[in-house]
Write a structure and sequence with these properties.
By secondary structure, the protein is mainly α. The protein has three domains: 2-77; 80-179; 221-283, no CATH class. It is 67% helix and 0% strand. It is built from twelve helices and no strands. It has helices at residues 2-7, 11-16, 27-50, 53-59, 65-77, 80-96, 105-121, 128-137, 144-153, 161-206, 247-259, 261-282. Helix 6 packs antiparallel against helix 7 (105-121). It is elongated, with a radius of gyration of 43 Å.
Length: 283
């Protein structure tokens, strides 16, 4: 409001008011007094226009712009006792303010700036060094390394707040790039595992032991033909079912596999891997 009145060359009449015209005033004094009265009414009109209904009720009976301004000043800036209470509240808020994990540097700086401006409006000015020390002391843990670097390489007694903000925002962007890269890598691993499971399941669905070696695109080769027996070195069966073994050996082998579940699982996994490898080669 003050800036608006100053832009219209009306602030002097609001601040000092209009003097009463003397009885023996000259014609020049009368002209000046009339100009001041017009300026005063113009300023009062601006104050009326800028006020809502509640505020307007407080100043509607004012006879001059100075009277209206004094009423608003007392109502919103407060008397000395109220001003002290406001200052104590703002000081406490400034001292207890801490940066949260979800805040950005810009958001935290805006909070600090808002409180500092309110303190200044209540006639308490904080030195820039105190503000910088407050910011460095209350950042989150992820800025610890850059805080140490600033304290060792910079003179915080002469550093402007804007420079500190630029340094911290640069560090914040680097951290964000690392986080984005880690997320991308995690998604790539997840997609790879998903595609692997899908292809494996598709291979088992398409597998039919009764089919022979296929010709043409899209047909699946019988993977059992590619399994090699360790007993006779022939393809098409495993050592447990080898026809070269004697009946006693086959019975012992069956009993051994019935008692050893781990070996059964190993053979099953071996067959699965061979089936998958055969499927990949044929597709």
């Amino acid at each position: 409001m003050r800036v608006l009145l100053e832009s219209q060359d009306l602030w002097n009449v609001v601040e000092t008011g209009c003097n009463e015209l003397q009885e023996n005033a000259s014609e020049a004094d009368v002209t000046e007094h009339n100009n001041n009265q017009r300026q005063d009414k113009k300023a009062l009109h601006i104050l009326f226009q800028a006020s809502n209904d509640i505020v307007l009720e407080r100043i509607v009976t004012a006879n001059s712009s100075k009277d209206a301004w004094d009423i608003l000043h007392k109502a919103y800036k407060g008397e000395q006792r109220v001003q002290r209470v406001k200052l104590q509240t703002l000081r406490t808020e400034f001292d207890t303010l801490r940066m949260s994990e979800i805040e950005t540097i810009e958001e935290y700086f805006n909070k600090i700036t808002t409180i500092v401006n309110q303190l200044q409006m209540n006639e308490e000015k904080n030195e820039e060094q105190k503000i910088i020390e407050k910011i460095l002391r209350t950042l989150t843990r992820k800025f610890e390394s850059v805080v140490v670097a600033i304290e060792e390489s910079k003179d915080i007694t002469t550093m402007p707040t804007k420079e500190l903000m630029g340094i911290l925002q640069s560090h914040e962007l680097r951290l964000k790039q690392y986080d984005d890269r880690s997320i991308d890598q995690a998604f790539q691993v997840q997609n790879f595992n998903s595609n692997y499971d899908t292809n494996k399941n598709r291979g088992f669905r398409n597998y039919n032991p009764s089919r022979g070696r296929g010709r043409g695109r899209g047909r699946f080769t019988n993977p059992s033909r590619e399994i090699k027996c360790y007993t006779c070195s022939k393809f098409g069966h495993i050592s447990r079912n080898c026809p070269m073994k004697t009946n006693d050996e086959q019975r012992n082998n069956i009993l051994m596999h019935e008692n050893d579940v781990g070996n059964e699982e190993d053979d099953t996994m071996f067959m699965i891997l061979n089936m998958e490898e055969t499927y990949n080669h044929t597709h």
